[in-house]
Amino acid sequence: MSVIMITKDNCPQCNKLKMFLKLALNNKYEKDILIVNRETNTKEYEELTSKYQVLTLPAMIAGDEVLTKTEPSNVVNFLEKHIGKK
């Protein structure tokens, strides 16, 4: 996994990002993104939000870089930088 996505249930912005990844990007990064959900991966979620000082969701993490402004253009640039696959 190159990128971690931190998310939670009942989060409109999280759902919007998931739909963008699935529909607009045709799931091409599906195997490259590890999704950590607050409700199902509580311990890992808490460790990541603490380590990276994440205060807003969704967030994407690659190496030491954290993306919290998840507008489509930012997400595409982040994924291309850390994963590739234009």
UniProtKB/TrEMBL annotation:
Pfam families: Thioredoxin_3 (PF13192). Residues 4-67 form the Thioredoxin-like fold domain. It comes from the Bacteria. SUPFAM superfamilies: Thioredoxin-like (SSF52833). InterPro entries: Thioredoxin-like_fold (IPR012336), Thioredoxin-like_sf (IPR036249). This is Putative glutaredoxin-like protein NrdH. It comes from Alteracholeplasma palmae (strain ATCC 49389 / J233).
